[in-house]
């Protein structure tokens, strides 16, 4: 087995050196780029072969829970000689170096800040492709962490007042003032933003612990909870309401929000009574043991015939900004 530095564990610091090898301080420019846009620096023949295929299989894999296949990252490949000047300012990049010992490193702020770069090296195509496959999850996590922070930074520039959420539910979230409160009653909040030909939605509420943890069927309990809330609070046209799409079971993960255990559910919603409306959702059921409850933070989108990856990423960034008082 090759010995190499594990991502997120072996973080190295990049510094500049003069001709004598002495360290110099540098002033880094601000990074740039669209959210979830990954620069891939590698020779063209590698991109077209086994190594490029491994990168696409893992880093352009479909995002969980979307109704259509959309890649985790939009990728822009360039040969090493083109990676100079403004192209080095992209916030996230992957660099492939063939003909060197097998290794994989993650570093911060090499050419700009904030920036996360991953460098994968190996003697052969097969060796490099294997390293990518073995470490894809950590690579994705490193890039997503950087992009999530950047999205939250952008959101924080112009925030909507969330004091009512804090008063009623003891939780605050940071969301842009482009959103509006559609419903605020009985400790249930529905927050909306209009987008071209659709909308982005946030709902926040609380349920007793035994709503989700009444038995071992956690995903079934969450679906039942969502459908009940949809019937009570999220109406659709022709007396319909939002339900969890029955044809596909949602993805269930465990995570943390503000240091608290949470169930993360991703899937698609629809409306009952054969009314054609549907879209993706992400749901965080955050365990508040002190108050014997789950606080539920959910985002969902309606954008027919449009890509939804970036919409859902914005909602995820908002929900993960939650702070419990």
Automatic annotation (TrEMBL):
It comes from the Bacteria. InterPro entries: DUF4837. Pfam families: DUF4837. This is DUF4837 domain-containing protein. It comes from Salinimicrobium marinum.
